[in-house]
Amino acid sequence: MNLPFSLERRPDEQQIGVIGAGTMGAGIAQVAAAAGHPVLLLDARPGAAADAVSRIANDLSALVGKGKIKADACAALLGRISVVDDAAQFKQAALVIEVIVEKLEVKQALLRELEAHVDPGAVIASNTSSISITALANGMRHPGRLVGMHFFNPVPIMKLVEVVSGAETSKNIADDIFELARRWGKTPVHAASTPGFIVNRIARPYYAEALALLQEQAASPEALDMLARAAGFRMGPCELMDLIGHDINYSVTVSVFEANYGDRRYVPSLVQKALVDGGRLGRKSGKGFYQGTPGRQPQAV
Ligand code: NAI
Description:
Bound molecules: 1,4-dihydronicotinamide adenine dinucleotide
EC number: 1.1.1.35
Radius of gyration: 19 Å
GO biological process, one term: fatty acid metabolic process
Domain 3-hydroxyacyl-CoA dehydrogenase C-terminal: 196-291
Order of helices and strands: EHEHHEEHEHEEHEHHHHH
Mean pLDDT: 95
GO molecular function: (3S)-3-hydroxyacyl-CoA dehydrogenase (NAD+) activity; NAD+ binding
Helix content: 40-55%
Protein name: 3-hydroxyacyl-CoA dehydrogenase
């Protein structure tokens, strides 16, 4: 009854699966539920999906408190998100979005396994920041149904979505996902599956130069952030990396560096590697360049 993916059906008839309930998965689940879809949220770490739902509930109740959304709308949105513990529960999903760690082999393994569970008419999307959609589709039985759907952090606030087509991605599916993102209130853009796509390619030097200045001890994180803000940026590079998560940001740099045959412009930073090795992942772990409450995200509007 929920199958297959079709823009002709109402959102409440199109179940969305989200795999990975971390920083981005929680935000994507919230946005899909806000658009009226029933959402199934799965994470490999026991309790992670339930924690994500609690984070969403906290953020939404703060908005209710500020009068930005109504309490019944908040309850309805939360009521559309269900926690599941097995990909087999995605068999009626029209669209499944993969939002797990930024590692090619891990994502490939997940996508291959996922295909055994979902309907042949279901679309599969990846929120990867930088990994080739062509490479992710390698080994899938139906590679044409894999498309990049790259949201930005924090998902409920950031409008941009890169819709990324790999070599095999069906044009109709990319166009449908573009339209779906638009219906979810986003500003989609089509992108080719080049390393880092568009935004992460452009953003690499912003992070890299800040990290180089830190390594040279030329400036503190506070000074860099203050300068960038004073120059008109919404966030400075260090606070932005704390928001993204250093593990993710570092993996993206490694992926862009390797995909460009070791181009020196994208050399990963030792400063950031030390943060990752020390578990100082940023907001999600409570400590990065700055210290704060673990997991707190800016609130949705
Ligand atoms: P995260 O580290 O906050 O969350 C990842 C979640 O995936 C964790 O809860 C983990 O337990 C779960 N997970 C790992 N392997 C799994 C598996 N095999 N099956 C099910 N769950 C699994 O990561 P985050 O930041 O949410 O990033 C996820 C993806 O989104 C990555 O591909 C990343 O590049 C991309 N992304 C991240 C952005 C950011 O600002 N953090 C922005 C845009 C895209």
